[in-house]
Amino acid sequence: MAKKNGARSPLSRRGFLRTSASAAGAAGLAASGIGSLVGCGGDDDVPMTTPDAGRRETQLRILGWTHFVPGHDVWFDRFAREWGEANGVEVVVERVPFNMVRPTFMAEMESGTGHDIYEWPTPQADLEPHVVSLNEMMTELEARHGTMIPLCRQSCFNPRTNNFYALNHGWAPDPANFRSSLWSAVGMPQGPSTWQQLLEGGRQIKTAMDVHVGIGLAGSDPDANMACRALLWSYGASVQSASAEVVINSPQSIAAVEFMRELYADTMVPEVLAWGAADNNIALVEGRASYIINSISAYRTAQTNVPATAADVFFGRALMGPATALVGAHANVSMMVARHARNPNAAQDFMLHLVERYNEVVYNSALYNLPAFPSTTPQLTGDDGWLAQDPFESQPADKLSLLTDAESWSTNVGYPGAANPAVGEVLASGIVPQMFLRAANGEMTSEQAVQWAEDQIAPIYERWRAEGLI
C-alpha cells in the first residue's frame, strides 16, 4: 500500500488503480464558460491501467446527479470514458436531477438490476443495508492519501456497524452568499456575522429596499434542511445527541423555532415556504434576495450570466447564535455501490481512480467540490492557491479565501453524532424545515412544532435501533 507521505508502492492484492488522466477533461467547464484542468498535480508517469488488469469486469454503469456547476458533468463524462477505454471497460454515465437519484435507486433495487455506482450530493445512510461495504477500499485510500476529513468520514461511515457504506469523495461548504451593496447600506459591509444581525439588517433591507432574506423552509428543499439545522445548532439544539438519542424536543429547539418565526415575519416573503433547491440561487442572481446560505454555485452562475451581480456577491462564515456557529456541508458528494451491481469491482477501481485525480474534480467543478482527502489537491491552499487566487476570475481574486477554514465552521448533517441511517431518513423526509415552517406560517406554536417534529423523528430512530444500525 502507498505510504501516507505520498510515496508510491506496488498495488495491493486487489489491484487497485493508481492512474493518471492526462488526456481527460479537455472539455472541462465549457458548458459554464469556465476553463478546464487536465492532468494537474498527478504522477504523469503512472499508467492508466493496472498491471494485473483487475477483475475482468468489462462494463460499468454510473448514475449521477446533475451537478450544480454544469461544466463538471462535461468533464466527468469524458474522464470516465477515457478511464474505461484504457482499462477495457465500457463506461456508461447517466444523469438525473439530484432528487431523482434515490427513486431510481429504489426502483432498481426492487428489480434487482440497474446501475453499479449511484452518486448523491447528500448522505443516504439509510440505504446501508442495500449497498456494498467499502471498508477494504477505504483502507487502501487512507493508506495512500491520509485520513479522510471528519465531516466526510461521519457522512459515509456507520460507527455502530463499523462500516463504510459510501465513499464521500468530496464536499461543498455552505457559506453565506450576500449582496455587499445592500448590507453596506445598513452598516454591515462584511455581511452579518450573527443570526441577530441577520434579523436586524435583513429587516432594514426589506423595509427600505424591498429585498428579502432568502432562506427556504420547504421540506423538499435541501438548502432549507441545511439552513434550519444551522439555526438549531447555533442555539445548542440538535436532532440527535452524539450517542444517537433523539433530543429535538428541548428549550433550545423551541427558542430557535421562535427566532425563525420572527426572522420569517420581518425579513422574508411567503414564496420561501415553497422553494425548491434552485430557488434561493435564482433569487440571489435576480436581485430579489439580500442573503442566502448556499454553496458557491449561485455565484458561479452569476459570473457567467450576470457579471454585475457576481461582483456584488461576497461570502460569509456560519452565523453565530447563542451557543455556536456551525453549518452543515452544502453537499457531501458520495458514491455507493449497490448490492445489485453487476460490476462492483470495476466500480471500486473507478472510485479509487477518481480520488487519485481529485485535483481535476475540484478544478472542473470551479472549486465547488473540495476534497475529502486534502492531500490530493495541494493546489487549493497557500498564498498562491486556488482559494487565495481564484483561477475563475473572481474580483477581488481572494473572494473565496474564507473557504480555507470552512472545515472549522462546517459539520455533518448528524451533528453532534454521525450521519447514521436514522439521520438519513429524517433528512430525506424534510422534517426539520417542516418544523420551522409550521411555526413560521402560524399553523402551530413553536412548542407544538417542536413536539410535532419529535413525534415524527422518534419512531424513525426506534425502527433503525431495532435493526441494529444505530
TrEMBL record:
It comes from the Bacteria. GO terms for cellular component: periplasmic space. It is found in: Periplasm. SUPFAM superfamilies: Periplasmic binding protein-like II. Its main location: periplasm. PANTHER family: ABC TRANSPORTER PERIPLASMIC-BINDING PROTEIN YCJN-RELATED, ARABINOSE-BINDING PROTEIN-RELATED. Belongs to the bacterial solute-binding protein 1 family. This is ABC transporter substrate-binding protein.
